[in-house]
Structure formats: structure tokens, C-alpha cells
């Protein structure tokens, strides 16, 4: 889970860098060509830079906005969630665990950090809302932790 968060951060950083570098080089004036083949190469390089900028922006847009810090999320989870969800279980509604299959089946929005953020923020049924008690960052970190632990298995 920690590695996944780090990889997502690295991908976002690379996408932003590509987007800015590609966009800048797509509009930068090139050297004056002496032959038509050089002109074609220069135009091709600018087109490729524009494509790279677009691809970088697309990657950035497709990356979830909830890539929190799993280590910080574990601490928040242990302090606020473990009373009912220790080990990924559920002491109130036993079949609504934090195991991947249960999250896929029961969580509105499915198995993803955004759905966990919504559930933790707003609560639902027997689960209280934590939106007024925890910061947005704490909730995002808990979501990253829960999805990561559910993916790898709570016993791992």
C-alpha cells in the first residue's frame, strides 16, 4: 500500500513534468532550418511534444485524487476505526467487513478510495460520520490505508 501510494505520486509528478515540458516545447520557436527535411523533423518534434503534453495531462486526469499516505492512515485508523474494524472486521454488522469482496459487494461506489472517503466522511446506517471529526487529509489517508490493506489482505 505504501509502495502503491509512492508509485502514484511518482506517476503524477512525471505526468505534470511531461505536460509542462511538452507544452512548452510544442510552442517554443525552433532553429531556422536550412533544408526541408530539417523543417519536417522540427515540425515532427513539435507535434510529438504536443502529443506528450496531451498524454501527460491525460495520465494526470486519470489518476485518482485520493492517493493518501497509508502510514498516516494506519495511525488514524487505529485511533478512530479499529474499535469496530480491528483486523478489517466489523463488530457491529459482521458481514460488512473491510475485506475486498465485502467492500465490492456493500460499499456504495465500489472498491476504491473515493467510495471509502465518502463513507467515512458521511457515515451510513450504523457507521457514524467522521467528516466533522477528522480532517480531509486524515480521511484520504484512512481510505488509502483501507484499500491497500483490503487489496493485500488484512492478515498480511
Give your account of this protein's structure:
Helices cover 65% and strands 0% of the residues. With 156 residues, it is an all-alpha fold.
Please outline the helices and strands.
Elements: H1 2-27, H2 36-62, H3 70-80, H4 82-85, H5 100-106, H6 113-122, H7 136-152
Total beta strands: 0
Q: How does the overall form come out from the CA principal axes?
A: elongated
- In percent terms, what proportion of residues is strand? under 5%
Query: Would you identify the regions where 5 or more consecutive residues have pLDDT less than 50?
Result: 14-27, 60-64
Structural class call reads mainly alpha
Query: Ends: how far apart?
Result: 11 Å
- What is the averaged pLDDT score? 77
Q: Helix tally?
A: 7
The helix fraction, in percent, is 55-70%
Tell me about the largest β-sheet.
none
Query: In angstroms, what is the radius of gyration?
Result: 22 Å
Instruction: Report the order of strands and helices.
Output: HHHHHHH
Key structural traits:
mainly alpha, 7 helices
Short description:
This protein is an all-alpha fold and 156 residues long. The chain has helices at residues 2-27, 36-62, 70-80, 82-85, 100-106, 113-122, 136-152.
Amino acid at each position: 500500500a505504501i509502495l502503491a501510494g509512492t508509485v502514484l505520486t511518482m506517476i503524477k509528478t512525471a505526468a505534470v513534468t511531461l505536460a509542462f515540458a511538452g507544452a512548452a516545447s510544442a510552442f517554443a520557436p525552433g532553429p531556422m532550418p536550412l533544408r526541408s527535411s530539417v523543417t519536417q523533423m522540427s515540425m515532427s518534434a513539435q507535434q510529438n511534444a504536443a502529443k506528450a503534453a496531451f498524454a501527460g495531462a491525460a495520465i494526470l486526469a486519470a489518476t485518482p485524487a485520493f492517493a493518501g499516505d497509508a502510514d498516516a492512515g494506519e495511525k488514524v485508523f487505529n485511533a478512530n476505526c479499529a474499535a469496530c474494524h480491528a483486523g478489517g472486521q466489523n463488530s457491529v454488522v459482521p458481514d460488512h467487513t473491510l475485506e475486498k469482496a465485502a467492500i465490492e459487494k456493500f460499499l456504495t461506489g465500489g472498491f476504491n478510495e473515493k467510495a471509502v472517503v465518502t463513507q467515512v466522511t458521511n457515515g451510513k446506517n450504523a457507521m457514524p460520520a467522521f467528516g466533522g471529526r477528522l480532517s480531509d487529509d486524515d480521511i484520504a489517508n484512512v481510505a488509502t490505508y483501507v484499500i491497500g490493506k483490503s487489496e493485500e489482505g488484512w492478515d498480511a
